[in-house]
Design a protein that fits this description.
Helix content is 13%, strand content 37%. It is mainly beta and 104 residues long. Strands 1, 2, 3, 4, 5, 6 and 7 form a seven-stranded mixed beta sheet that branches. The model has no long low-confidence stretch (mean pLDDT 82).
Length: 104
């Protein structure tokens, strides 16, 4: 797979309304200005309450949208993983999952 570039490590559970507002100021996003990409911290998060009908995934107490079919297929309830996600318009999008062994 192509390399996945991450802008910074940041826990999704720490995204406050103020931080989301600051991230929104970086818009508009497009080919020359991709949305910021974050990696959850070293301490692994617990993926639970997976609801694939709408492409929604709950990571801890944070809900993310996931449209990447290959990522959805790798998710299992209770999987402990670091996640890569983007934020746009106050919505979090799960774009990849790194398992405990560091595999993508």
């Amino acid at each position: 797979p192509p390399p996945l570039y991450v802008d910074m490590e940041f826990p999704p559970t720490a995204l406050s309304p103020q931080i989301l507002s600051q991230i929104d100021r970086l818009e508009p996003y497009g080919e020359g200005n991709p949305p910021p990409t974050f990696l959850s911290p070293e301490e692994n998060l617990q993926l639970t309450e997976l609801r694939f009908g709408r492409g929604r995934v709950r990571v801890g107490n944070v809900e993310m949208v996931c449209w990447e079919r290959d990522v959805i297929e790798r998710l299992k309830s209770g999987l402990r993983a670091r996640v890569v996600y983007t934020v746009s318009g106050g919505r979090l999008s799960l774009i990849d999952v790194e398992d405990r062994d560091g595999a993508r």
